[in-house]
């Protein structure tokens, strides 16, 4: 087929599928709710459409008989460097990366998973460790045919990304970790929990609008706009994005905060070049943890501090984060 005709046909198919997706969404919403879709539901649909316009498509991969991983992945192969973007504990991959996917999709083939028990990813197995998440992600990427890639992990996603890079070093080129507690010892965990002033599970698995609002206030330094977000929107977010698999998500938090047994192996040292991005106003994981992890990793790691940014640097300063990622990975 003529290349121009093929491109025209693929573009036409994409736009038709996007329109049909919107129609299906509205029909499903009216059927389910018997009323006009909420502001959150409309926002959720718009973000999905935006991901499609950035050249990404949803795909689900069966890792084994009881485990399914859902991805947003670059449609087709553009022979660009591959970047795996791993979200943190609140929401799913779309909501955490909506400020970055447009810019990064122009430079990389993106693979953005929902971690297990987030979005549409699920397992019936009982493992709750970050290592298990990494194992499933490694297998899911293999089944997608992604041979080599770099990693960008936020907060909890940084834990998963760290173990993924250690697990398959021959497939991982470079690693970007942002605002993550990798390397925290038991004393540091206790101090961080005490500093929060409330049960971490109420923040990381919010059940009320106040829980979610507090999570945002502690994560986003430039969070003044949170006062303008109505409770109805936040409640819809909790009902749709956070209520699913609540028990399993709490078990993930329990595992993350569990005391070290002393019998496990020490934190491995990654072989890849690693960039640690931190906000200088991070309330959750303060900057000293960035330099602590840098010392552990040695000469292949460097720290980039973003000023006037909190734990969610990707929301406080997405343009600067994008610039740091592109310059580091593409050199």
UniProtKB/TrEMBL annotation:
Q: Where is the AB hydrolase-1 domain?
A: 81-318
Q: Which UniProt keywords apply?
A: Membrane, Transmembrane, Transmembrane helix
Q: Which residues cross the membrane?
A: 12-30
Q: Cross-referenced SUPFAM superfamilies, in alphabetical order? A: alpha/beta-Hydrolases (SSF53474)
Any GO molecular function? catalytic activity
* InterPro entries registered for this protein in UniProt: AB_hydrolase_1, AB_hydrolase_fold, Epox_hydrolase-like, Meta-cleavage_hydrolase
Is the keyword Transmembrane in the record? yes
The protein's matches in Pfam families, at most eight in alphabetical order, are given as: Abhydrolase_1 (PF00561)
* The protein, known as: AB hydrolase-1 domain-containing protein
Native organism is Linum tenue
């Amino acid at each position: 087929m003529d290349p121009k005709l093929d491109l025209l046909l693929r573009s036409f198919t994409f736009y038709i599928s996007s329109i049909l997706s919107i129609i299906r969404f509205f029909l499903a919403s009216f059927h389910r709710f018997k009323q006009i879709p909420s502001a959150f539901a409309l926002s959720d649909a718009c973000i999905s459409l935006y991901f499609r316009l950035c050249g990404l498509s949803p795909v689900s991969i069966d890792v084994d008989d009881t485990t399914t991983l859902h991805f947003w992945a670059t449609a087709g192969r553009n022979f660009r460097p591959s970047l795996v973007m791993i979200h943190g504990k609140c929401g799913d991959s779309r909501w955490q990366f909506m400020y970055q996917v447009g810019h990064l999709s122009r430079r990389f083939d993106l693979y953005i998973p929902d971690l297990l028990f987030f979005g549409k990813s699920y397992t019936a197995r009982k493992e709750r460790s970050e290592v298990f998440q990494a194992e499933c992600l490694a297998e899911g990427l293999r089944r997608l045919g992604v041979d080599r890639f770099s990693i960008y992990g936020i907060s909890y996603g940084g834990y998963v990304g760290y173990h993924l890079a250690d697990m398959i070093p021959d497939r991982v080129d470079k690693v970007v970790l942002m605002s993550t507690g990798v390397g925290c010892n038991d004393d540091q965990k206790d101090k961080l929990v005490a500093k929060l002033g409330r049960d971490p599970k109420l923040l990381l698995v919010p059940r009320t609008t106040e829980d979610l609002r507090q999570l945002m206030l502690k994560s986003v330094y430039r969070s003044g706009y949170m006062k303008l977000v109505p409770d109805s929107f936040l409640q819809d977010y909790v009902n749709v994005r956070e209520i699913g698999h609540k028990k399993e998500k709490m078990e993930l938090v329990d595992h993350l905060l569990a005391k070290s047994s002393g019998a496990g192996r020490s934190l491995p040292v990654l072989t890849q070049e690693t960039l640690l991005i931190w906000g200088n106003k991070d309330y959750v994981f303060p900057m000293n943890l960035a330099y602590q992890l840098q010392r552990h990793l040695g000469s292949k790691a460097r720290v980039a501090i973003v000023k006037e940014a909190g734990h969610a640097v990707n929301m406080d300063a997405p343009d600067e984060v994008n610039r740091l990622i592109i310059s580091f990975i593409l050199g």
